[in-house]
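Collaborator request log, item 7. Partner lab (contact: R.S.) asked for a structural prediction of CopG family transcriptional regulator to inform their binding assays.
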Amino acid sequence: MLPPHIKNRYSDHPQTIMRPVHLRLSEEIIQHLEETAQMHGFNRIQGLIRLYIRQGLDRDNSNYTLAHDTLFIEKLRKKGVSQSIIDEALNDVNQKCDLG
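Returned to partner:
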């Protein structure tokens, strides 16, 4: 697996690695994407597709919370972590997520 960031030799900011993904889309969908991309100021449809994917992922994951991850919590319990520490950690994480 590729590392998520590589050093950019021209600046101190890390550069995100982009990997190609190939999709088969109908001509109708491509035409609609091209028109929509132009309306929203994108030069190419790739930027619009990335935006749609990101928005969908953000929407699907917005309700995720570690409190519902029972497998993770059970593993912590088996390792000897007390329920009070688990509850405290979940509260801390939820407070930080609510601020961000």
